[in-house]
Amino acid sequence: MQDLGVDGPEQIIRDFGKSKAKAQKDIRAKLPMRQRAGMPKWRKKREALPTLNYTRRGFRLKDGRLQLAGGIVLTVVWSRGLPADPSSVRVYQDSIGHWYASFVAPVVAEPLPATGRVIGVDWGVKETATTTSDAHDLPHARHGKTAAQKLAKYQRMMARRKPPKGTPGSKGYREAKRKTAKLYKKVARQRQDTGRKWAKAVARDHDGFAVEDFRPKFLAKTTMAKKAADAAIGATKRALIEMGRKHGRNVRLVHPAHTTMDCAHCGARAKHRMPLGERTYTCTVCGTVSPRDKNSARVMLVRAGWNPAGADGGSPPGAQLPQAA
User: Fold this and answer.
1) Contact 158/177 with Cβ under 8 angstroms?
2) CA angle (94, 95, 99) in 5-degree steps
3) What is the pLDDT of residues 24-39, one digit of tens each?
4) C-alpha to C-alpha distance for 200 and 9, rounded to whole angstroms
C-alpha cells in the first residue's frame, strides 16, 4: 500500500477486461443463461456518475484520512469502523451529488446464541414477508406510496422547466431534479432500513431460515409492478441472507415451485393452481384450513428438512435442530 501511483482509471479497465473474459468463458462453456456472467454494459456519459476503483497499491489510510493515487487526500466521515484492513476501495458520487468511499474488507462472523427455533419465510406483495411466526411477519411498509404525492410535485416542476434538447437546464430545473433524486434516495434508505431491522430480529430469534428463493424481476411486467417495487422484496431477501450468514445461522433457499399448491400438514398437492384472489388454503385430502401464505411458509420448512410443528415455527421436542453454517 505504499505505491500510490495512478491506479484508478487503469483499475477500471482491468475490471472491465476481467468481466468480459469471464462472460466469454461462460459462453464457451455453454452454461445456462441464468448461470452466466453478464457482459459489461457501457453507459452514456450523461447517465453514468463518476466512480473510480483503487486496489491496495492505489490508496492507504493514515490518521483517519484516505490517501488516493495522485496525491489526493480526503477527510472521511466514517459511518462505522472497518473490521479489517481493506483490499480495495471504490470512490463514487451518488445522484444527489454526495461522495462515498466503499471499502472491500473481510467480515468477521459474529455468532449469536442458539435459540432452538427455525422459521419459514414466504415473500409476497400484500405482506412483504409472511413467516411461520406471527411475531415476525413483515407488513408492506408503503414508503414509496407515502412519498408519491411529494414526488409527483417535484416531477411536475421538472416537466415545466425541462430545457430544449441540447441546452443546459435552468437553476430551477436543476433544483427540482436534485429534490427528486433526494426523495428517491430517502425512500431507498427507508426500505433498506426496514429490511435490515427485520432481518436482524429474525436472525436473533431463530437458528435456521427456510427462505423462498423468489425472484421478483418478473413482477415488473405485471399489474403489481408498482406495489412490488415498493415492497422491495429483493433487497429484503438479500438483507436476510446476509444477516443470517453474518451471525452464523443456517440459511436454506427453497425453490418456490408449487409452494401454494402443497399442503404443509400432509404433503398432498392440489390439482389446480389457486387464483391470486383466494387467500385461504384448504387441503382436499386432510381438510386442513389455513391462510394461504402461512401454509406456504410452513411448506418452506418441510422442504428445507425441518419440522414445522410447534409454536411460532419452533421445532418440537426431540426434533433435529439446524447446525450453524
Assistant:
1) yes
2) 25
3) 887 777 777 666 766 6
4) 38
